[in-house]
Design a protein that fits this description.
alpha+beta; Elongation Factor Tu (Ef-tu), domain 3; six-stranded antiparallel β-barrel; 4 helices; 22% helix; globular; Riboflavin_kinase
Protein backbone atom coordinates (compact mmCIF):
# COMPACT_ATOMS: atom_id res chain seq x y z
CA UNK A 1 0.00 0.00 0.00
CA UNK A 2 2.70 2.47 1.03
CA UNK A 3 4.43 2.54 -2.27
CA UNK A 4 1.41 3.38 -4.37
CA UNK A 5 1.25 6.91 -3.00
CA UNK A 6 4.97 7.59 -3.33
CA UNK A 7 6.57 9.86 -4.19
CA UNK A 8 4.15 12.05 -2.28
CA UNK A 9 4.37 15.81 -2.67
CA UNK A 10 3.17 18.00 0.14
CA UNK A 11 3.41 21.62 1.12
CA UNK A 12 2.10 23.50 4.11
CA UNK A 13 2.73 25.85 6.93
CA UNK A 14 4.93 24.83 9.83
CA UNK A 15 3.10 25.04 13.15
CA UNK A 16 4.22 24.56 16.75
CA UNK A 17 4.03 20.93 17.82
CA UNK A 18 4.39 19.58 21.34
CA UNK A 19 8.02 20.62 21.52
CA UNK A 20 9.05 17.09 22.44
CA UNK A 21 11.36 16.52 19.50
CA UNK A 22 13.88 19.22 20.14
CA UNK A 23 13.75 19.40 23.89
CA UNK A 24 13.76 15.77 24.91
CA UNK A 25 15.52 14.20 21.98
CA UNK A 26 17.77 16.88 20.56
CA UNK A 27 16.15 16.09 17.22
CA UNK A 28 14.11 19.07 16.07
CA UNK A 29 11.06 18.27 13.98
CA UNK A 30 8.71 20.45 11.97
CA UNK A 31 4.99 19.85 12.32
CA UNK A 32 2.46 20.50 9.60
CA UNK A 33 -0.89 22.11 10.30
CA UNK A 34 -3.86 19.80 10.80
CA UNK A 35 -5.34 20.55 7.37
CA UNK A 36 -2.15 19.31 5.68
CA UNK A 37 -2.07 16.14 7.78
CA UNK A 38 -5.74 15.45 7.04
CA UNK A 39 -5.06 15.73 3.32
CA UNK A 40 -2.54 12.85 3.45
CA UNK A 41 -3.69 9.76 1.55
CA UNK A 42 -5.26 7.32 3.97
CA UNK A 43 -3.36 4.47 2.34
CA UNK A 44 0.01 5.79 3.53
CA UNK A 45 0.74 3.55 6.52
CA UNK A 46 2.18 5.00 9.70
CA UNK A 47 5.91 4.66 10.08
CA UNK A 48 9.18 6.30 9.18
CA UNK A 49 9.84 7.65 5.71
CA UNK A 50 12.56 9.62 3.98
CA UNK A 51 12.68 12.24 1.28
CA UNK A 52 13.52 15.85 0.53
CA UNK A 53 12.48 19.04 2.27
CA UNK A 54 12.74 22.72 1.60
CA UNK A 55 11.80 25.66 3.82
CA UNK A 56 10.42 28.68 1.96
CA UNK A 57 12.64 29.21 -1.03
CA UNK A 58 15.69 27.77 0.71
CA UNK A 59 17.90 24.86 -0.23
CA UNK A 60 16.56 21.33 -0.54
CA UNK A 61 17.80 19.02 2.24
CA UNK A 62 17.49 15.35 3.06
CA UNK A 63 14.82 14.56 5.64
CA UNK A 64 13.28 11.80 7.72
CA UNK A 65 9.55 11.88 8.31
CA UNK A 66 7.43 10.17 10.90
CA UNK A 67 3.74 9.52 10.33
CA UNK A 68 2.09 8.32 13.48
CA UNK A 69 -0.95 8.36 15.69
CA UNK A 70 -0.77 11.06 18.25
CA UNK A 71 -1.44 9.45 21.61
CA UNK A 72 -2.24 12.90 22.98
CA UNK A 73 -5.40 12.87 20.88
CA UNK A 74 -6.35 9.30 21.83
CA UNK A 75 -5.26 8.02 18.42
CA UNK A 76 -7.82 9.80 16.32
CA UNK A 77 -5.41 12.29 14.80
CA UNK A 78 -2.38 11.44 12.72
CA UNK A 79 0.69 13.52 13.24
CA UNK A 80 3.30 14.12 10.58
CA UNK A 81 6.70 15.30 11.76
CA UNK A 82 9.62 16.14 9.52
CA UNK A 83 13.21 16.08 10.73
CA UNK A 84 15.33 17.95 8.21
CA UNK A 85 18.90 16.66 8.13
CA UNK A 86 20.46 20.08 8.36
CA UNK A 87 21.17 22.54 11.15
CA UNK A 88 19.00 25.63 11.04
CA UNK A 89 20.02 28.66 13.03
CA UNK A 90 16.46 29.62 13.89
CA UNK A 91 12.92 28.26 14.11
CA UNK A 92 10.84 28.43 11.00
CA UNK A 93 7.31 28.45 12.40
CA UNK A 94 4.97 30.08 9.93
CA UNK A 95 7.21 29.30 6.97
CA UNK A 96 6.05 27.11 4.11
CA UNK A 97 7.62 23.65 4.21
CA UNK A 98 7.65 21.70 0.96
CA UNK A 99 8.42 17.99 1.13
CA UNK A 100 8.61 15.05 -1.20
CA UNK A 101 8.34 11.66 0.51
CA UNK A 102 10.29 9.22 -1.65
CA UNK A 103 10.58 6.02 0.39
CA UNK A 104 9.70 4.01 3.48
CA UNK A 105 12.10 2.88 6.20
CA UNK A 106 10.13 1.01 8.87
CA UNK A 107 6.85 0.78 10.74
CA UNK A 108 6.23 2.73 13.93
CA UNK A 109 7.30 1.01 17.07
CA UNK A 110 7.30 1.65 20.77
CA UNK A 111 10.55 2.03 22.65
CA UNK A 112 11.39 1.16 26.23
CA UNK A 113 13.55 4.23 26.71
CA UNK A 114 14.37 7.58 25.25
CA UNK A 115 17.88 6.28 24.47
CA UNK A 116 16.47 3.42 22.41
CA UNK A 117 14.27 5.88 20.55
CA UNK A 118 17.17 8.25 19.87
CA UNK A 119 19.40 5.48 18.55
CA UNK A 120 16.59 4.23 16.29
CA UNK A 121 16.16 7.75 14.90
CA UNK A 122 19.91 8.04 14.32
CA UNK A 123 19.76 4.77 12.36
CA UNK A 124 16.77 6.06 10.39
CA UNK A 125 18.77 9.19 9.52
CA UNK A 126 21.73 7.13 8.30
CA UNK A 127 19.42 4.95 6.23
CA UNK A 128 17.72 8.02 4.75
CA UNK A 129 21.09 9.51 3.78
CA UNK A 130 22.10 6.30 2.03
CA UNK A 131 18.83 5.88 0.15
CA UNK A 132 18.63 9.51 -0.93
CA UNK A 133 22.03 9.25 -2.62
CA UNK A 134 20.58 6.68 -5.03
CA UNK A 135 19.84 8.14 -8.48
CA UNK A 136 16.09 7.43 -8.43
CA UNK A 137 15.71 9.39 -5.18
CA UNK A 138 18.36 12.00 -5.89
CA UNK A 139 16.59 13.15 -9.03
CA UNK A 140 13.57 14.30 -6.97
CA UNK A 141 15.80 16.80 -5.20
CA UNK A 142 15.77 18.83 -8.42
CA UNK A 143 12.01 18.61 -8.86
CA UNK A 144 10.25 21.81 -9.95
CA UNK A 145 7.92 21.32 -7.00
CA UNK A 146 10.61 22.91 -4.84
CA UNK A 147 10.66 26.15 -6.80
CA UNK A 148 7.95 28.28 -5.25
CA UNK A 149 6.56 30.88 -7.61
CA UNK A 150 7.50 34.42 -6.56
CA UNK A 151 4.82 35.93 -4.40
CA UNK A 152 4.19 32.59 -2.65
CA UNK A 153 6.99 33.28 -0.21
CA UNK A 154 5.47 33.84 3.16
CA UNK A 155 8.19 35.44 5.28
CA UNK A 156 10.98 36.36 2.96
CA UNK A 157 14.13 36.59 5.07
Amino acid sequence: GAMRSLPYFCRGEVVKGFGRGSKQLGIPTANFSEQVVESFPSDIPTGIYYGWACVGNGDVHKMVLSIGWNPFYKNIKKSVETHIIHTFKEDFYGEILSIVITGYIRPEKNFDSVDALISAIQEDIEEAKRQLDLPEHLKLKEDNFFHLPEGKIVNNH
